[in-house]
Amino acid sequence: MPLLKNKRLDLSYSQMKWETVFKRLLIIMSAILVLLVVGILITLVVQSMPSIKSLGIGYLWGKVWDPVQNIYGAWPFLLGTLLTSFTALIISIPFSYAISIYLGEYNTRGWLSNLLKNTVELIAAVPSVIYGFWGLFVLVPVIRSLEMKIGVAPYGVGVFTSSLILSIMIIPYAASLGTALIRMVPSPLKEGAYALGATRFEVIRSVVLPYTRSGLFAGILLSLGRALGETMAVAMLIGNTSTIGNSFKEIFFGPGNTMASVIASQFTEADHTVYLSALIELGLVLFFVTVIINLIGKKIITKYTNN
Amino acid sequence: MKIVKSLQLTVVTIVACGITLSASAQDNTLLGAGSTFVYPLFSKIFSEYGKANNVKVNYQSIGLGGGILQLTNKTVDFGDSDAPLNADQTKKMGAPVLHIPMASGATVVTYNVPGVGNGLKLTGKDLADIYLGKVTKWNSPEIAATNRGLRLPNMPIVVVHRSDGSGTTFIFTDFLSKVNSEWASKVGKATAVNWPAGLGGKGSEGVSGLVKQIPGAIGYVELAYAIQNKMRFAYMQNKAGKFIAPSLASTTSASNIEIPADAKVSVTNTANAAGYPISGFTWVLIYKEQKYNGRSDARARMLLKLIWYNVHQGQKFCEPLNYAPLSKSAVKVAEKLLKSATYGGKAVL
Questions:
Q1: CB A229 within 8 A of CB A286
Q2: What is the percentage of chain A residues whose pLDDT exceeds 70?
Q3: Contact A269 B190 (CB under 8 A)
Q4: Is the Cβ pair A271, B209 closer than 8 Å?
Q5: N or C: lower Cβ tally within 10 Å for chain B?
Q6: Does A269 contact B188 at a Cβ distance shorter than 8 Å?
Q7: Which regions of chain B does DSSP assign to beta strands (E)?
Q8: β-strands B235-237, B243-244: how paired?
């Protein structure tokens, strides 16, 4: 009996051609993306050259930002960026985790689950300028009365206020990723734990969370990346002061500045070559800070998944 | 297939019409960019000019830095700035640039002190000391000395400045540099400086928002802005020793001096007894040699005629919009500058 011919194996010439074309198209598009990022990096480096030549490496820890004498230093802005981003992350983590676990484990289906999921995604959709306005008119007076109670200068605007707004803005990134991952935990794993007599909380703690640990951490990295680069809301709420306070209380509750907010505020009016180039160098520093934090994060993830 | 083809034809025709229409519009549309301070005045003048002549003017108020950049790149016909070009910008321009005065405006000092109404008297030196962070309370002896009889509360002064670069900051710091030597050496004058103390607000709206919200705050905004938003302002002491309220009249008095031939003059800390000391001009910037980048003689003529209108008939729109009009001597200097503009070496007007 002759074997039945598998017609599928008789691929025509045009089918083979399209397979190759498709693969090449994907490779080209990925290459374009990589080239774009490299291009941005090269542009930043080239445009910061005047500032790098005149200020040198001391720019990174310089504390003075003087456009009149053309002395620039990035330290206050580096401090402000890291302080606001990490504070916002720490405030937002409990909320992101709580939403992910609730939507992923307790309430995966139904009208309430959908409503909650859509609301969380809506938080990400609101423009950051609106957050800035809301912060200015609603949050700042509240923080001002809080500061009067604590006994620090009652500005209202400052590092603390911007951290609060940032923490609201970055919740959706970790929460959405976390929800999707927790829903993907295979049922046999959970059912095995239940069969052994684990309570719901014990199943979450011992089965679900370790399984999704690397993914949840990646969600946190995503939130942190968003917080590092956030410009408009921070520019309106941070107080725009380029000097560093004396005590931690002053730095934390008082006004400060972040790299993104300085660039946004002063870029259009930079009237000297060195001034403009110093701002672009600030952008380069922000770029590198983001890259370094992402690399550290990836390393932590691989360390945990290999363990 | 036929429907698709006819749709394609329609799209192509519309696009072609659009291109030709915009091309013809290009010929009688002038482009300008620059200071936000002068935008309300320019809107009014240009719309009135457009009604009488077949010329449209497209002015983008992107800030004086943006205007200077666009003029350097030769993408606009004219720019507008509240601060004269500095050495770095002049070098980048390459060719000589004329500064033609348009109008003058004042920068007022606004504050939010409970129990104190309009008219707090401040000397320039005290204002600079406040902004240096040396005078920290409202009831300090320096402020009390110029305001005898006024009950000042024991509140800390919250200093508010601009977080973005602006011409208003230039005029303000120019005044502070003239009246306080420590400010001149430590901080200096520019569109953006290293502020020793205080919070930054973005734009005049940011500054006024912060001042309104924080009790004990002090800030600076443009006069037109303060009048429109009914803000409290201080009476500043000028060089003649008098405390002057900011107004159109006092700004006009301050600018009513002999201005040099290139019109780059600072009128802060005026010696005129009735003049408000924190005033400044705004200038329109054009290239002196108008034949560049393939510009036509007609276009150069159109531009110069527009600016001529600005300094003559356009001045009547200044007062209703809270700008101080040019004095007679300033108009003469502007005329001379406009007559010195050339096209291919020959004077245009």
A1: yes
A2: 98
A3: no
A4: no
A5: N
A6: no
A7: 29-34, 56-60, 78-81, 97-112, 121-122, 158-162, 199-201, 217-222, 235-237, 243-244, 279-287, 342-343, 346-347
A8: antiparallel
Instruction: Give tens-digit pLDDT for A71-113.
Output: 999 999 999 999 999 999 999 999 999 999 999 989 888 999 9
Q: What values do phi and psi take at B56, rounded to 5?
A: -105, 140
- pLDDT tens digits along A19-72: 899 999 999 999 999 999 999 999 999 999 999 998 888 899 999 999 988 899
Selected residues 39-78 of chain B with any CB under 8 Å from a CB in chain A: 62-66, 68
Question: Which residues contact residue A100 at a Cβ distance below 8 angstroms, ignoring those fewer than 6 apart?
Answer: A174, A175, A177, A178, A179, A181, A182, A216, A219
Q: Which of residues 279-338 of B touch A (CB under 8 A)?
A: none
Tell me the nearest-neighbour CA distance from B115 into chain A, angstroms: 19
Residue B15 pLDDT exceeds 70: no
The nearest CA of chain B is from the CA of A64 a distance in Å of: 8
* Angle (CA) A20 A22 A26, round 5°: 115
Beta-carbon separation of B190 and A271 below 8 A? yes
* Average of per-residue pLDDT values in chain A: 91
Are the Cβ atoms of A271 and B65 closer than 8 angstroms? Answer: yes
Give the range with max mean pLDDT: A189-193, B23-27, B222-226.
A189-193
A35 φ/ψ angles, rounded to the nearest 5 degrees: -60, -35
Owner of token pair 């500058």: B337
Residues A269, B166: C-beta atoms closer than 8 Å: yes
